[in-house]
Amino acid sequence: MRPKAVCVCRDGDRILVNAAVDRVKGERYYGPLGGEIEFGEYAADAVARELREEIGVAIEEVQLLGVLENVFTYEGTPGHEIVFVFDARLADPSLYARATLVGEESNGLTFVAQWLPLETFAPGGPPLYPDGLYALLHAGRRARRDA
Question: Dihedral angle at the C-alpha atoms of 134, 136, 138, 144, nearest 10 degrees?
Fold first, then answer.
């Protein structure tokens, strides 16, 4: 089991997400930016570090939205995570006007994060992981963009 921290950055009804593919399932899915919490690191510090490392941005007004337990299978391998879900504002307001943000994972692979409406992930839409994230965001719906 591994602890993770993810950041939901919002702009009105849009959220910043990264697309990925599980080749074994043949599934394209989405998730917020973030990653593993390092030993001795607080979850809020981890999410700020991850966004700084992945897309080179600072975040402000970091608030815990909830904690989700995610039991899953990825690429045919079972996994189990405890995910701290944070809401935050991007410190650079110009980033909200960009359709995409290019980032880099710790393994050197690049990715493109994009702003998509939360309702994209309503039942019947593409998966938004971790499991339970759409319900958490929809239930506590609060448009964000204090830029």
Answer: -100
